[in-house]
Structure formats: C-alpha cells, structure tokens
Design goal:
The chain is mostly helical. The protein is built from eight helices and no strands.
Length: about 260
C-alpha cells in the first residue's frame, strides 16, 4: 500500500532521487538564510531588538542547508541542479509572498510594516516546514542515516513557528492586527497553490528518476490535488491563527551547530 513512509523510503534509497531531494531542500534553506540575514541588517531602528532573533532564524536556515549537503557528502554524492518548477522559495518570492529580493538587496531601512509582512510570510511557511519535518520525524527519527538531521531540523522549525506566533501577537497588540490578518490570509492562499504546484513538480521528477508506472504517478497527483482542495476549502485557516506558544523566546539564544555526519 502506498504511504508517506514507503514513498520517502523509496526516494531515500535511490542515490539520484536522494540527491535531488537533498539539493531541493538545501537550496531552499540557503535562500531562507540569505533573506533573513538581509532583513536583520535592514531592521528599522524601532525594532532593533528583533534583529538578533532574525539573525538566529537565518543562521538556522543556513545550518539546515549545510546539513542536507552533509547528508549528500556522506553518501558520496554531489548536489544537483534544482529544477525551477521545484524551487518553492523562489516561486513564493516571484508570486509576491514576503519581501522582494530587489528590496532586500538595497541598503535602505525597512519599515515596521515590512517586518510585519516578513513575520506573516514566515508564520505561513514555517507552519508548512514544521508539519513536513514532523512527518519525517515520525517515520525516520531512529533512522541511522538521517535520524539526527531530521530531529535537529524539526526542532528548529518548531522554534521558528513559535517565534512567529509570539512576535506577530506582539505586533497585533501594538495595533497591527488587521494588517496581520489580511497579510496572513493572502500569504496562506498563495502558499497552498504554490505548494501544490511544487509538490506535483517534485513528484513528476521523482517518478521519472524512479520509473514509476503511470498509475502510481496519477495516484500521487490525485492525492496532491486532494490536499489542495482540503486546504482551499478551509485547511488554510490553520496557517493564519495566532496563539501564544508554549516555547517562549524560542529564538532568544545563539543558533546551535550542525551535527557532524561521519
């Protein structure tokens, strides 16, 4: 029977599909690291206390990129080019989600509203990341090859999500509530569409590499469309709710180092 666990096992067992999986993940994490580093450098003076947390967020993303590259190296593999249709982070940026790279490349201070936009975008995308890593952790936490990496990244993503909740609530109490809710909704509705398209593209590439029969590819595509239908009908709302997290000040300290892989 086709399951998330068996699907991941098949992808991880093949060198070519594993290389693509890790390369896609490393590319997205590295891009997120750059974005956070630039935002931290451009934080408005009134929010300078937030800069170390944004820097920590970016450092974590950079660390995740190094972890995925280390997993490749451990298998004696090199990173492979990332097909543009599978580049989740770049597609979000091209669709106007978050802060434009053109803006981040300029040495101009951001406005408070820009920080609200950044945090709203992060709250949505970190929800997705936390859920994906939780799924991998459920099935592969004890795996001798990827278990340590999965647990490390999953814990970090949970911290990132908690940080977004706490900071957005702070801004909401300061009078930005309506802007936050509108931005969260816009981000969530765009993200679920992009996630669907990227998922279809990733599965198409994996199917080509692994030689999946048409029936299997069609079943996976149908599942992806079903998830999108659920999210479009109301599942997206889990991405826009805000509540004070149990993990308070989740990014208040220095980033942890990437685990070593022998």
């Amino acid at each position: 029977m086709l399951s998330a666990k068996s699907l991941f096992q098949e992808i991880l067992a093949n060198d070519e599909s594993f290389a693509l999986f890790c390369s896609i993940a490393a590319s997205g994490e590295s891009q997120g690291g750059w974005e956070n580093a630039r935002i931290a450098a451009l934080v408005p003076e009134s929010e300078r206390e937030l800069a170390p947390k944004i820097t920590r967020h970016g450092a974590d993303e950079d660390k995740h990129g190094r972890i995925f590259n280390a997993l490749l190296k451990k298998r004696g593999l090199d990173p492979v080019p990332v097909p543009p249709e599978t580049d989740y982070t770049m597609l979000l940026e091209k669709n106007g989600i978050g802060l434009a790279h053109e803006q981040l490349k300029r040495d101009e201070r951001l406005a408070v509203r820009d920080i609200v936009t950044y945090l709203s975008h992060s709250r949505v995308t970190e929800q997705r990341a936390s859920e994906q890593m939780d799924l991998l952790r459920k099935h592969f936490a004890d795996d001798p090859d990827i278990g340590r990496a999965v647990k490390q990244i999953s814990n970090d993503e949970d911290n990132h999500l908690a940080y977004c909740h706490e900071e957005l609530l702070r801004f909401a109490y300061a009078g930005h509530g309506r802007v936050i809710q509108r931005t969260l909704r816009e981000c969530a509705l765009a993200e679920i569409r992009i996630y669907r398209d990227v998922s279809l593209a990733v599965m198409a590439n994996m199917g080509r590499i692994l030689g999946w029969p048409k029936a299997k590819s069609a079943m996976l595509a149908a599942g992806i469309h079903a998830v999108y239908a659920y999210e479009r009908l109301g599942g997206w709302r889990r991405m826009v709710s805000l509540e004070m997290p149990e993990r308070r000040d989740a990014l208040g300290g220095p980033a942890s180092t990437a685990p070593e892989f022998a």
